[in-house]
Design goal:
- The protein starts with 16 loop residues before the first helix and ends in an 8-residue tail after the last helix.
- The protein has 371 residues and is mainly alpha-helical.
- The chain contains eleven helices and no strands.
- The chain is 74% helix and 0% strand.
- The protein has one domain.
């Protein structure tokens, strides 16, 4: 891709892939040289060094990467849903055909809503220069696609068995397991996406403490969630590799929690970048090692899970993390802005209640109250 004084060429959605990848992976959120269709706007914002320009270009590249990572998972889900609609055979067991048809239709509906989210990601990418419109369409389509599988999970799988009590128990257990597997990528991506957004917000606004506190508070919940989710493949396989994978995954939130306190302090930009680089580097290493061990452990355990299913789960998690990182940073920045506005509106000559509380706590000399 050739360079020019007006910026790199990048008028189509397929152009500038390397530049988008570098931006999305940059710890400093360094936009680099703008693409041709970014030059005019960036120049109007005073160059790529401004916070607003950095956010817009980072969002654009994250959406670009998230869109293309999402496509393979969406394609696999679409093929599976079509096959399920066309083939209602459940191994010769007598079933309620109407319930099976409804279940297949609900699965296809989820795929359609995921396609809506893909369209929303693409639309947000195309509207990258209008932050308000871009974040609105992205948030709406993401919420719809995120909640859809949870609504479908409320369908009682026992009804597929008709009046067969024993088959109802089997279908109920299989349905529960299937929904856990289907929902796990979305649930697992939720907190990592929030954490990644918080760390990115800290890079943009190094003087703020809210992102660091979000990391500190969310990391323990992420650890517990990972432990619960990882119990399923570990108990199915009993593989030592899965135990090691779980250990690597669990050390990630521990490291983030340890780093959260430092991120909660107002820092200088260069100090923030160094801290974030260290935090993200260790986290990526732990999660990468865990993913490799998980992949090897599941594929060698002989439990009937093929490489395509594992690949689909991993790219599904990756796509959701990328997209949610953008959704979350939009919400986080908006929330911080509203909080600051409200704080300014309620400022008065009265003492800050928090300062008063801390002064009273420091001055207290008597024993703590009982009861």
């Amino acid at each position: 891709m050739s360079n020019s004084r007006s910026g790199r060429s990048g008028s189509s959605v397929f152009a500038g892939g390397g530049q988008h990848l570098r931006r999305a992976l940059s710890v400093e959120m360094d936009p680099g040289e703008p693409l041709a269709d970014e030059v005019a706007l960036v120049a109007g914002l005073g160059g790529v060094g401004g916070t607003y320009a950095r956010l817009l270009l980072w969002r654009r590249s994250m959406l670009y990467l998230g869109f293309f990572v999402l496509l393979p998972s969406l394609l696999i889900d679409s093929i599976s849903a079509i096959i399920q609609l066309a083939d209602n055979d459940v191994g010769g067991i007598a079933v309620d055909k109407d319930s099976v048809a409804v279940l297949g239709g609900l699965g296809f509906l989820v795929v359609c809503l995921n396609a809506v989210m893909a369209f929303g990601v693409y639309s947000a990418f195309r509207r990258w220069s209008d932050w308000g419109a871009s974040r609105k369409v992205l948030l709406i389509t993401w919420v719809i696609a995120f909640l859809a599988p949870f609504a479908v999970a409320l369908f009682p799988m026992r009804s597929v068995a008709g009046g067969n009590a024993q088959a109802a128990i089997i279908f109920g257990l299989l349905g529960a397991l299937n929904h856990v597997v289907a929902l796990a990528p979305k649930v697992l991506a939720l907190i990592p996406g929030l954490l990644r957004a918080a760390v990115s917000a800290k890079v943009l606004f190094p003087q703020t403490s809210a992102p660091g506190w979000l990391v500190t508070l969310a990391s323990p919940f992420y650890l517990l969630l990972l432990f619960v989710i990882m119990m399923l493949p570990y108990q199915l396989t009993g593989s030592p590799l899965l135990m090691l994978a779980m250990l690597c995954f669990l050390l990630g939130p521990v490291w983030l929690w340890r780093s959260g306190t430092a991120l909660a302090r107002p820092t200088r930009p260069e100090e923030t970048v160094a801290l974030v680089k260290k935090t993200r580097g260790v986290s990526i290493a732990l999660n990468g090692a865990g993913a490799v061990l998980l992949l090897i452990g599941v594929l060698t355990a002989g439990i009937g899970i093929d490489a395509l299913s594992v690949f689909k789960a991993l790219i599904g998690i990756a796509a959701n993390v990328l997209i949610l990182s953008v959704v979350a940073i939009d919400v986080l920045i908006g929330g911080m802005s509203r909080a600051r506005t409200i704080a300014r509106e309620v400022v008065s000559d009265e003492a800050d209640p928090l300062d008063t509380f801390m002064d009273e706590a420091a001055a207290a000399t008597g024993p703590p109250p009982e009861g």
